[in-house]
Every structure is written in structure tokens, then in C-alpha cells.
Amino acid sequence: DREPIRPPLRLPQYVLGLDFSPDGSQLAIPFGFNNPGASDGIEILEVGTGERVARLPVESEVRAVAFSPDGSLLASGQIDGTAQLWETGGWQEVGSPLPVGQAFVSWVEFSPDSQTLATSSRNGTVGLWDVESQAAIGSLSGPDELWSTTRFTPDGGRLFAAYDNGRAIRWEIDPSVWRQRACAIGGGLTPSEWEEVVPEQDY
């Protein structure tokens, strides 16, 4: 019936990275970004009642948040160049902050299987992280000093990074695609060339 279910939330001016939990029952709100005097951290609200479920303290200002598709984790991106994982069962930090880089983290996004985290930084860099080990998988450099938004395709095979200059980059996530592309560019190796380059591998 398009009627409000509760009074409007009163938030700081620059709250840019809201995210709903997969079942739609909770809303994560990052506080503190570009808001002098506002308290930092993340608030988790119950959507139906508006009641606070948790308040997650963060040492740096939070720019973006994202729930994992399986609902077990929340990721946050901070302006100090780190990202943090939180388990949603008890809202405890998972491991240490991920050292994304020098520029602040402007976006975080989980892969559809919840096993990979993508981060976007203000310097144009997009990074991939293994969620379980929290190890860096790789990074992609884009236009410097541009905002970007990252999105996985529904099958998780590609990541798109769209920048505020109107350009976008498609990143193939599957390493087998990288191999196919490399072979296509190189035109293939002859048996003798293969033996010279990778003798430990069968042709």
C-alpha cells in the first residue's frame, strides 16, 4: 500500500553504502564518512521494527558495507585503506583488517558463492580476496583518482568495475579464461617452444 512502515531514519549527510541482509530482515548502515563529529562504526537495524541489532565499532571511518549472499558475513570498507569482515551470528570481527592499500576503500562486494570479496579503492585499484584465508588473490589497476562500483555477474565468472568517468572494466575471474586468452594472443606454442618455456609440464 506504499505506506511508511516506520518513521524515517535520521542519518548523517554522507551515508552512501547501505546494504540489506539477503533475507531483507536487517539493514547495515556505515557511519562517520565525511561527517565531522559523527561517531564512526556500523549500525545493524532490524528492518521491521527499526531497532538496533548491533553497533560495530571501527577505528576508521566506514565508506561501504556489504552482506555476503549466504548471510554469514558482513564486509566493511574504511577510508584508512582497510576492509574488515564480521560474522553475523554474533557480530564478531573475523581476523585482522585486510590491507587493501593506501587509498581508502570505496566499495566492497561478495561473489555469489560468498567465497571471494572484491574491493574498490579511491586510486582506481580493484582487488580480489579469498574470504576463508583472507589472502589477496590479485588486483586490477584502473583509472587513478576515480570512484568505482564493482559487481560480480550472477554466475560469479566475471567482475565489472564501473568508474565515474563513464568507463568500465570487465575482469574474468576464472583462471582458465586467462590461459585461453594468453594462448590466443600468443598463437600457441610449438612442442619445441613449449619444452623451452615450461619443460616440467606435458605439452
Order of helices and strands: EEEEEEEEEEEEEEEHH
Question: Spans with pLDDT under 50 lasting ≥5 residues?
Answer: none
**Helical region count?**
2
Beta-strand residue percentage = 35-45%
Largest sheet: 4 strands, antiparallel
The percent range for helix content is under 10%
User: What is the approximate shape?
Assistant: elongated
Strand neighbour order, sheet with most strands: 1-2-3-4
Based on CA atoms alone, the radius of gyration comes out at 20 Å
Distance between the termini: 65 Å
Would you report the number of β strands?
15
- Taking all residues together, what is the mean pLDDT? 87
Structural class: mainly beta
Blueprint (SSEs and pairs):
Elements: E1 19-20, E2 26-31, E3 41-46, E4 52-56, E5 62-67, E6 73-78, E7 82-87, E8 92-99, E9 105-110, E10 116-121, E11 125-130, E12 136-141, E13 148-152, E14 158-163, E15 168-172, H1 175-186, H2 191-197
Antiparallel strand pairs: 1-2, 2-3, 3-4, 5-6, 6-7, 7-8, 9-10, 10-11, 11-12, 13-14, 14-15
Task: Describe this entry's structure for a reader.
With about 200 residues, the protein is mainly β. The protein is built from 2 helices and 15 strands. The strands form 4 sheets. The protein has a 4-stranded antiparallel sheet with strand order 1-2-3-4, with no helix packed on it. Strand 5 and strand 6 (about 75-80) form a beta hairpin. The model has no long low-confidence stretch (mean pLDDT about 85).
